[in-house]
Structures
1.
Amino acid sequence: MSPATDRAAAEALDAADPLGEFRDRFVEPEPGLIYLDGNSLGRLPRATVDRLRRVVEQEWAGGLVRSWHDWIDLPTRVGDLIGEHLVGARPGEVVVSDSTTVNLYKLAHAACAARPGRDVIVTDDDNFPTDRYTLAGLAQARGMTVRVVASDPVTGPDPADLLAALDDRVAVLSLSHVAYRSGALLDLPTITAAAHGVGALMLWDLCHSAGSVPVGLADAGVDLAVGCGYKYLNGGPGAPAFLYVRSDLQPTLRQPIWGWFGQRDQFAMGERYDPEPDVRRFLTGTPAVVGVAALEEGVRVLAEAGLERLRAKGMAMTELARALAEEWLLPLGFELASPVDPAARGSHLTLRHPEAFAISRALIAEADVIGDFRTPDCLRLGPAPISTRFTEVWDALDRLRSLVAAGRHRIHAETSPADRRVT
């Protein structure tokens, strides 16, 4: 064993970790469990438990409808927190609303409408399914075409291929900043500039980067973006999502779902729809107050930790996992399915193995390690920088090595990947 992969090295990293104290801000799972699925569902902040108790027992039970005086601005207030601390947006450019899928539809529809005469949407074939499905449905409804760029399963779409797919017929280029399967991190500023070079609007999915990777929406001049609240943002299962619209575009873009929370002077109950002049025009119906309140607490913890420190730790943890996998797991039939350079990937690491699904099931049942499986043969390991220890990464890889070396995963080989129903 090399010095870098000795457990003592992981212990030293924990001892020097400037984010170490944040671990105690989260509710502990059962003893012995190692959770490496923070890129799918973040853990529960202790502050959220207190906040939800206050929302339910005081604001709802006691305040009743009077509490809307405090609730009404939650979507924009939490949106500004996300914008300032996690995605590099200006005040008034981010709002919490709906789900990622609905937000993607709203923004893609608005973008296509803003580019009349253009009939092509560009994306890649390894983009997250909801993105591909939503764009395909929108294209069908509007008589447009989706132009799909082939994506390398490890490194993502080649910038040259993306550039070749862009022309004056393209209305929107829509991509994920971090690939959900491999963790490949795309060059957001360069790709955004390429879309602008042909007059197209750029729409980014930030689900696997918000809260773990610097995004810099304003600096890059990004037009539109969406992201979810239940992964690195620790907003809870099904947490509300967020959307971003660059400020100069807000007065002119029209989203297709004309709800009363996007209406100017909404309580006048006007006869005709007259949208707000700012980002609030992208709201639809009444916000899910409990969900937005929970999301606010998750975002506050990350804001306090600082995105640069979260990014540094995320790279260090996935680099430790990569080094351990190279030494221990490649001889057991695994392959690295994420970029080798830590700066070229997000905060999760993916390994490929022909029996990946059985291994992922066995990890949970036999080794008390919760990772994640993605078809067809990928095991994702997502240590969340805010709440995971380096020694947990080391112990998880050690348990994985022992389990596969002993063949204990094979008792789970009859289970079908179709049995798993999680986002």
2.
Amino acid sequence: MRPPLQLRHVAPRLATGAFILNSGLSKRRMDPESAAGLHGMATHAYPFLDKLPPTTFARLLSAGETALGAALLLPVVPTALAGAALTAFSAGLVGLYLRTPGMREEGSLRPTQEGTALAKDVWLLGVGLGFVLDEATSRDR
């Protein structure tokens, strides 16, 4: 039986886990004005989020990012599970980038100056997909 964490997964799990954990912890005590701005951007891309009050949305996002970051950092969490969660989370971020006006150059996937902060999250999607595919195709499963 394989251990839940392969040596080749350590560096990307540490990098993504620390990045996401820090992001989640920084949102823990978000002021109402910042929460409203974050919520407004998210609801533009995902209208169903409009049902949540901004402070609740920020609190839930903080908890989700904190849990995902911890899952990536904890070696007892299998990489396939952590990778699937990272893929789902980062797909949402890429969707936010694609659906938010002004983030991309007209008729292109290339980011505008304002969109670079969101466009860079595609690396999280790549890491998550890499974990899932590596675990799904590994011969020593």
